[in-house]
Amino acid sequence: MHPILVLFVKGVLLFTRNKAAVLITFLVPVVMIALFGFVFGLYKNIDKGPGGIPLAVVNLSHEPAATDLVEALKQEKTFRVIAETSNADGSKRPLTEANVRAGLHDNQYRFALILPVDMIPEDSFGIHLKFLSDPRNEIETQTVNGILQKTIFSRVPQLLGQSLQQRSKKLLGDARFESFNRTMANTVASTYGGDPEELYQQMIAGDFGFSALTSSPSAESAGKTKSSDASDIFSRIARIETEQVAGKQVSNPMASRLVGGYAVMFLLFALSGSATSLFEEKRSGIFQRVLSAPVRLSHILWARFLFGVALATLQLIALFLAGKVLFGIELFSHAGPLLVLIVSVGAACTAFGMLLAAVSSSHEMAMGLANLIVLVMCAVGGAWFPVSMMPAFIQHFSKLTIVYWAVEGFTSVLWAGQSLMEILPTIGILVGVAVVVMAVATVCFKRSAMFD
Amino acid sequence: MLSLRSVTKRYGSLTALDGVSLDIAPGEFFGLLGPNGAGKSTLMSLSAGLRAPDSGEVTLGGVALEKTDLVARRMLGLVPQTIALYTDLTAEQNLRIFGQLYGLNGPELQTRIDDALESVQLADRRHSAVKTFSGGMQRRLNLVASLLHRPKFLLCDEPTVGIDPQSRNAIFDYLEKLNREGLTIIYSTHYMEEAARLCSRIGVIDHGKILALGSLDELLTRLPFEDEITFPETPATAKFATQLKTHGQLDTANGTHRFRPQTGYPLSSFFAAAEQAGVPTRLFEIQRPTLEAVFLHLTGRKLRD
Question: Which residue has the higher pLDDT, A43 or A234?
């Protein structure tokens, strides 16, 4: 048996005898990815329970549009609207502004919207709302502001219609206001048809037909009156045709990206740990014994590299299978290119682990370096969130990481469904990285005291 | 024959071996005696082909031993100073791996594994993980792992460090048996008792140089005395001890006089002088000098300093 094969089998034996290593390599990453799945809501068939950002709402207005706005907020998945509080006897009562301020102080919620009595003021044109917040989380605050604006703007036409009528009534007086509206209703009825009395009632309620802007055709045809989706009004003003070019068949797009990114992170940690076990073999004098046999240094390094690639391949396959079981990621239709990509990623990550061991003078130093470099590579390389969201100068560095090319490759296969030929450039880069890094590691090993 | 010719090895500014020349004949049990840091392990690793000398030459059977020479390594077995075993694996798995590295396979390998485990009384523990073994058991396995391929030369680098006397004796017995069967053994140690018991020839090494080379008897003849007489330091022996200084070397420490009579001063004269001084003969203890004395004589310091 060739020394490389003997040492490879030795690596397998040592690994399988070490139950802790097996657990850390396979089970822990699967459990972690399952947990991340919960965090990011990747499970399709699991009741996620109450979700959304808590938003306290106090409706002091008696305008129909105010009630309509509250309903629209309740329809928003981003929010969990809290409009009531409990009495001592368990009964419910509407929130007051005082309740809301106390709740904000007690961190029961961090955002509150107050619809005041003068939401539609008589003495001015427009609407009046009050937004209270505890902006301790900037991203959350920006998200809430954005969604609130969208929802409010979706109700603006109706709200402004009511505001317009109230302002007119005040300026014209009751008699002239009624006369004006009746004349308008009769004119509309005689010109376009319809019942003059019904049109008159709609006009004094501030309904000038703006609701048609915010209701979807499908809802209308189904006999429903309104839609809560604010995008409808904007889509009618600016018509944008959208077409999804890639990922049409992906059943769980977020999971496809997330599993790939985290799988590479766990792989890098596992392989760094595996490579740094070289220090243990050096300490025990095993290298002396092995190298006193008819074995070359290159045999030891090749065996270690091949074992790392095999371990990486198994770990990635296990993690993607877990992704399939947990999140429904489609694997088998991409099996060929995915397997080649997995082996390439494994080779690059193994070479990285070997280089770490080669440039470190101790196990502790190697692990410290591994933690630092792996976390930076994962952050910059897009394992946690898309590189496109990062500043431009960071994106230049992203391409220098193994993680970037690994995630790009997995996304190309699992999201875009690219063939082996199409991902060949990515595979070429990963294999190239493996070859260059392994060559540098070999030179460093020869110069280091590892095998003395 | 394993030969070193003017071998020098440096690590930075430290000269680990300084022009060492040495021939070890087939069948010899050669001891390399010296304190820690004397250069023993460096000499061993050069002899095993693990390192190349900076100058000089190491030859095996007349052929230069290159670091890359894989064929020559089949003639050598190295027992490292540490327990160089995969402690998570079983005794049998360890032996199988090291046997396979020498190209052994199949029934032949299995037979050798069985014989090796039997020879060091570990056959019944063949399926136990090495980490569950006592220090002595690990040392025994460490030894036989180097013998599976039946080398012609066995390099033992302090193979009994940290084990109990019983296990040490078992290893000594086994090594002596192997030597009687024709195996050439090079044994490094800083225990003079081990070198004295085992080795037919001893090289005393310090600061990278071989200071003396020969059998135990030959080394002892280098001393300027043949016997060592000790007696207690008391008021009754004080005057007698002073008289002895003209006939040899007298050291006094820890309540004991240690007298090494110069060559030509017979023991009969010593006892006559003692009788004349009124010192009873039962106080005297006569010993043969040890390698410790040789080392002290050669270097001016004790072996374990």
Answer: A43
